[in-house]
Amino acid sequence: MWTALAALGRSASSGGYFRQPFATAERECHAWFAEQAAARGLRLEHDGNGNTVAWWEPEGATGKAVLTGSHLDSVLDGGAYDGPLGVVSALAAVDLLRDRGFTPGKPVGVAVFAEEEGSRFGLACLGSRLAAGTTTPERARELRDPAGVGIEDAMVAAGLEPDLGPSRWLQDVACYLELHVEQGRDLVHRDEAVGLASSIWPHGRYRFDFTGQANHAGTTAMPDRHDPMLTYAMTALAAAKQARLSGNRATFGRIDVGPNATNAVPSRVTAWMDARCASDDALAELVATIEKQATERAGRDGTEVEVRVESVTPEVVFDAELTGRLAHGRPVIPTQAGHDAGVLADAGIPSAMLFVRNPTGISHAPDEHAETADCLAGVEALADALTELTR
Ligand code: GLV
Ligand code: MN
Ligand code: MN
Predict the structure, then answer these.
(1) Does ligand 1 lie within 6 Å of residue 124's CB atom?
(2) Which residues hold their Cβ within 5 A of ligand 2, which is an ion?
(3) Over the chain, what is the mean pLDDT?
(4) Protein residue with its CA nearest to atom 1 in ligand 1
(5) Which of 52, 54, 123, 166 suits 239 as a labelling partner, its CA being 20 to 30 A distant?
(6) Domains delineated in the chain
(7) Is the CB of residue 88 less than 8 Å from the CB of residue 1?
(8) pLDDT number for residue 243
(9) Rounded distance between C-alpha atoms, residue 118 and residue 69, angstroms
């Protein structure tokens, strides 16, 4: 399975993955998933949000289902593991359970959620949010990709039939268990191959629009400028400093400059900040401090800054009883990364996560990695958990 996925959407220059929702590489991943489901005799079900579930429904399996899986889309130039490891491990766990001769007493679903990264439409976990009803179709329709395309048009262009809104099948789900590559080095420090998630830090995305005055890069004396790039640069430094001082995270990873010319003072800079904190209050305070410093600097630069909140995801605390049942002495650790499991937990579906050790901790980048032995330990842990939950 890993070898078949390895080539899909891979950049020859960086070795990273470009699997944006409803674009070619991600569609190839979904086609691969459909083949894998068919090869195992799993029933495939699609919803109108771009999500897919493969159902294992042995005779006699009754009651609400246990859902596992993850996502197949990636960030721009992402790693191989973030998302696909959870999907591949779920299919491998089904194989392992069958090899063991185990028949679940409840249906098991392997889910692939769409646009988990928010790399195209800007809102992370869009597929699971729509499925769970925590984001409305109206809100989703307002979103645009960088080329101005909306989600429904993107789905139609990919040959899908959009029907945005809560997914019927999610109502038949008792709990969700997502396996994921760890995106830090906590398990390395603890010398453990597999752990579980306790919580997800509150996090948000914020759009900063800096505006100034375009002018000649040679003839405009330095004191005469209203350069929004300077306001942006100081804001990025302030964000890093404030996050560091408070033990939190703030990142400007995407900017758009106009007119983007070497020999002109720019007229505008749009920059997106990703901020994550240990508590909801700390997140609000961090963003307010950065906005205040940006506004003060804009006053000195003769520029303007407007800050818009694109999304805020409050803290998620995973189901302690479910996590405790599955832990068996493994470490239970918080994460700063967002996940579909957090969305489903927020929607009232008991959810838990298994993490597989990542030797370098690198993620959202081509160097993301997990050793095969650890991945196999993850499959075993997932199969054991599915046994426990579906007995
Ligand atoms: C998703 O991976 C996120 O945390 O940005
Ligand atoms: Mn992920
Ligand atoms: Mn990710």
Answers:
(1) yes
(2) 82-83
(3) 98
(4) 338
(5) 123
(6) 2-201+315-390 (3.40.630.10), 203-313 (3.30.70.360)
(7) yes
(8) 98
(9) 18
